[in-house]
Amino acid sequence: MLAFTAKSLYTPLDHIERPLLLVDGRNIVEIASRSSKALPPNTPLTDYGDDAVLVPGFFDIHIHGGGGHDVMESDASALPIIQKTLARHGVTCYLPTTVTAPMEDTLAALDRLATAIEKFEGNGPVGAQPLGIHLEGPFLSHVRRGVHPPSNLLSPTVKIFNQLWEASRGHIRIMTIAPELDGAPEVIAEAAKRGVCVSMGHSDANLAEASAGFTAGARHVAHVFNAMRPLDHRDPGILGEALTNPQLTAEVIADGIHLDPVIVQLVFQAKGLDGVALITDATAGTDMPDGRYRLGTFEFEVKDGKCLSDGKLAGSILTMDRAVRNAMRFAGLDLQQALRAATLNPAKVAGVGGGVLKAGAQADFLVVNRAGEIQKTILRGVEI
């Protein structure tokens, strides 16, 4: 058994001063205050000091790559590099996210990702753990496709969804779809029936079409404000539904590029602390120098902090630790409040549990300072 302590611990819902976090193997066995529980005999104690806070590992539910690699690559070394890159920035679990590509490429990528999920070793500090797949495309709007290749977009049908589902061997946790497309309500209902969190995005839906998507079973909105019909006071569109429906959670890319800081503040005020999931939408260019990288089957350029393809934003180079700090600064949140959007909320969206420090949970946690800067990452009880 190992013991860890610091100045504070955020579960993130609860706050414990001078905590004692006990780990046996890969799991947390107990969390208590040192004032109420003595250190068990012969248990090594790691004290991270008076500026340190123990917090859950981050969960990124919308990420395409990092460290020079894309999650859809066939190169066997790609995912381990991405996972190590994520862990350096506090992400301990994630959903590798596809981008629209030719159907055969998408099916092959889903098969590879399913294998990576099923065969994840998890016996050592190898990196962030894939807990499922986020399918972004091919059921997206041509009008709001962003950089998704138009020739590979498909009209949604249950038959095509079944092909994708079978290729993933049931590991699709989130699917982003434009709810206004013909056939979308049927696909949304079928996906929701199978436990998929259906996310509305890359959409030109009006308010009625977005509401119909919710009625069919959608409960999440992809990178809110980006790649969707703008908010208008007489035509509120999908954003009207996203911002006012408390049963919809909303993804936020808090890099200061995809959203102005005041819009990040607006989303947190509209959705509350339980309604926002911070994402990175990160690409292969993350943690890499400026240059050209791949996203699915096409290239984009990283320059001056932006990912661009034909002048359009193509994901980001945001890291989750920076997203948390930006959320604090943009929305006036404290560390504990911002953490919910990077831990507990995305875990609930993905439907996999986690995102909270408690007895029985896997021992994936971070040591951060009061500003939210990563000091250490502990994966499955092992410090990396």
Quick summary of this structure?
This protein has helices at residues 78-88, 103-118, 158-168, 184-193, 207-216, 237-244, 261-271, 320-331, 335-340, 344-350, and strands at residues 2-5, 8-10, 15-17, 19-24, 27-33, 45-47, 53-56, 58-63, 65-66, 69-70, 91-96, 129-130, 133-136, 172-177, 197-200, 220-221, 249-253, 276-279, 291-295, 298-303, 306-309, 312-313, 365-368, 374-379, 382-383. The protein has 384 residues and is of the alpha/beta class.
Topology (SSEs and partners):
Layout: E1 2-5, E2 8-10, E3 15-17, E4 19-24, E5 27-33, E6 45-47, E7 53-56, E8 58-63, E9 65-66, E10 69-70, H1 78-88, E11 91-96, H2 103-118, E12 129-130, E13 133-136, H3 158-168, E14 172-177, H4 184-193, E15 197-200, H5 207-216, E16 220-221, H6 237-244, E17 249-253, H7 261-271, E18 276-279, E19 291-295, E20 298-303, E21 306-309, E22 312-313, H8 320-331, H9 335-340, H10 344-350, E23 365-368, E24 374-379, E25 382-383
Helix pairs in contact: 2-3, 5-6, 7-8
Report what the structure shows.
- The chain is of the alpha/beta class.
- It folds into 2 domains: 2-53 and 371-383, Urease, subunit C, domain 1 (Roll), CATH 2.30.40; 58-354, Metal-dependent hydrolases (TIM Barrel, Alpha-Beta Barrel), CATH 3.20.20.
- The chain has helices at 78-88, 103-118, 158-168, 184-193, 207-216, 237-244, 261-271, 320-331, 335-340, 344-350, and strands at 2-5, 8-10, 15-17, 19-24, 27-33, 45-47, 53-56, 58-63, 65-66, 69-70, 91-96, 129-130, 133-136, 172-177, 197-200, 220-221, 249-253, 276-279, 291-295, 298-303, 306-309, 312-313, 365-368, 374-379, 382-383.
- Helix 5 (207-216) crosses helix 6 and helix 7 (261-271) packs across helix 8.
- The longest helix has 16 residues, at 103-118.
- The model has no long low-confidence stretch (mean pLDDT 96).
